[in-house]
Amino acid sequence: MRHSIRVSVTGAKGCIGGRLIPALLQEGHQVRVLVRDRDRIRSSRPSGEKRRRSR
Fold it and tell me: Is 33 exposed, middle or buried (0-12, 13-18, 19+ CB in 10 A)?
């Protein structure tokens, strides 16, 4: 039995993060990302994904 986990990823658009995040989402995990340029992540966000803005 698999359990969903919450994962925080920095460098979400980098070499590793760009491959890690889709794999985690496909497995059903909750992913929170940290990026320097918010516009770069918006263009690649899967449909249906929730977005929360940090202050």
Answer: middle
